[in-house]
Amino acid sequence: MKSLIQATIAIIVVTALLMYAGNAMSAGSGKSGKDTLTIFNWGEYIDPDLLKQFEKETGIHVIYETFDSNEAMMTKVQQGGTAYDIAIPSEYMIEKMKEEDLLIPLDHSKIPNMKNIDPYFLDLPFDDNNKYSVPYFWGTVGIVYNPSLVGDLDFSSWEDLWDPSLKRTVFLVDGAREVIGMGLNSLGYSLNSLDNNELRSATDKLIKLAPNVKAIIGDEITPLMINNEATVALTWSGQAADMMYENEDLDFAVPEEGSNLWFDNMVIPKTSKNIDGAHAFINFMLDADSGAQNADFVGYSTPNIAAMALMDEEVVTDERYYPTEEQRDTLEVYKNLGPDYLGKYNELFLEFKMSIR
Amino acid sequence: MQTKASKSALFPYVLWIAFFVIAPIALVVYYSLLDLHGNFTLENYKAFFTSVYLKMTLSSFWYAFLITFFTLLISYPTAYFLTKTKHKQLWLLLIIIPSWINLLLKTYAFIGIFGLYGPINAFIEVLGFDPKQMLFTDISFVFVSVYIFIPFMILPIFNSLDRLNPTLVYAARDLGASAFTTFRRVVLPLTMDGVKAGIQVVFIPALSLFMITRLIAGNRVITLGTAIEQQFLVTQNWGMGSTIAVFLILFMVIIMLITGQKNKGGRVR
């Protein structure tokens, strides 16, 4: 009994000390709720030095949290447990968050650096006049591969993935929209298809891909490709850029039948307690210098023209990452499917996963 | 013979059970009866009995069975020999320590160990065989899960073996039973409760493992846990997610009933 009491007291003392230390640390960098900014972003999607620089310039303390899917992000914002001031969802999710009334309209007068953004990426259908969102990065979905290990395949067509020589080598991302979308694209259908027959034949086509599939995983694919442990992977363009930066043997292709064009955008969720700070942060990220530094670090394509002027010529003219406007015509932006069809896509994705044995 | 004082002492526990046991289960059942638009329906239960979910349930059970079986196969002898060692508490501690490390961290470590250029393949190459990609197979999945569950199986078995009165074993040997017969007719029946407790602790969580299925098995193994995660976080179909959870609860109740019966059919009382 005595030792039990001692242990209990020890735990309470340690907890109290940790809490005190934690408080002291956060008090050192930011004084009150008004002076902190909570950012909710995808993993490995910002240069941490920029956060430090922002803290230094404005005196605002940044709390940084990450998510790994748009849906998980929205669920957390909806629950409202944390006062997120900035979130960076993709375009179809912004449509959905608008419908659910989860966003605060932007005050454009506080974001003068908007002028740096390529007009091509402004005023898009998912957010008229950029009332709620400002573009952060954009990119495509394609195939990263190791040319020395795949023979003559160059993945100019999705069909190449079905090649029998790729038995048990293809890695896919764990996302229903990406994988079902790829099935639809490979048959020439829209990746926003709401036609049950098209969805059925896309799934059947994917099930034929099953013998070639090695695994369906998330960000873990990056180290595997870098270490030559994986040969072919369906992935986002920026993730491919990361891999190719580390492993120069790799190449990236966006198949000609078409693929997904996506935009991630900065928004201010309804949970925000520091709306002025959030505007300051958006403006800071749109600055030419920080935009260029961030794009260099993250590897995705920036919509910021002023930043592109500061970046390596070779990078910004590389059509694999900065496709020309004609090439962009074959690409399609995800639309919000509504809950019923999102459910349907997920059921089909589950069915496809079950077929991998 | 309950006094008023002891009744009121029970009050906080009743409150605890009401809020943290009964209320959540009631909520899960309630949500399982809602469709995507918040209307009452039995559609979710119907959907569960489609081939996709039934296949998934079967494969979940199969893998949970495999994991439990191998965990038991390793843990029982380990626990048995532990009780025979000199510093058994120290050895036990050494076995328990790995469970202090975060589960996800251990899983990531295995990605490196099993990798094409990891230590295991390096060893295989030394032996003169071609390296093989061991990640993303169901064997690696079962291996890692067994590794993770072993401490949880050893503890209850160790405790029941440790409590076993050694004079019973001596008596059996004195009366002419062979070592094997002694084990089968005396030691095993008397430690069955520990084994049952171990099975419960392993089988039930194994049914709903989900992070390892992706990291180690690359989604080649799909468990009910994966499906629940998808329904809540991606599809946001809380109804269907809850329905799967309801079935998981039912399966658990059944397993508890099967493993919970005391000494039925046992030869020794």
From TrEMBL, chain A:
Which superkingdom does the taxonomy of this entry point to?
A: Bacteria
Keywords for the protein's UniProt record, in alphabetical order:
Periplasm, Signal, Transport
Pfam families (alphabetical)? SBP_bac_8
Localized where? Periplasm
The UniProt record lists the keyword Lipid biosynthesis: no
Entry keyword annotation includes Signal: yes
Cross-referenced PANTHER family, in alphabetical order? SPERMIDINE/PUTRESCINE-BINDING PERIPLASMIC PROTEIN (PTHR30222), SPERMIDINE_PUTRESCINE-BINDING PERIPLASMIC PROTEIN (PTHR30222:SF17)
Q: What is this protein called?
A: Spermidine/putrescine ABC transporter substrate-binding protein
Q: Which organism is it from?
A: Lysinibacillus contaminans
TrEMBL record, chain B:
State the UniProt keywords alphabetically. Cell membrane, Membrane, Transmembrane, Transmembrane helix, Transport
Entries under PROSITE patterns matching the protein: ABC_TM1
Q: How does it sit in the membrane?
A: Multi-pass membrane protein
The entry's protein name is Spermidine/putrescine ABC transporter permease
Query: Which segments cross the bilayer?
Result: 12-33, 61-83, 90-114, 134-158, 197-217, 237-259
| CDD domains according to UniProt | TM_PBP2
- Entry's localization field: Cell membrane
Domain ABC transmembrane type-1: from-to ranges: 57-259
Quick one: where is this thing mainly located? Answer: membrane
Q: Indicate whether Transmembrane helix appears among the record's keywords.
A: yes
One Pfam family of this protein, by short name?
Answer: BPD_transp_1
Q: Tell me the protein family, please.
A: Belongs to the binding-protein-dependent transport system permease family. CysTW subfamily.
Q: Report the superkingdom from the record.
A: Bacteria
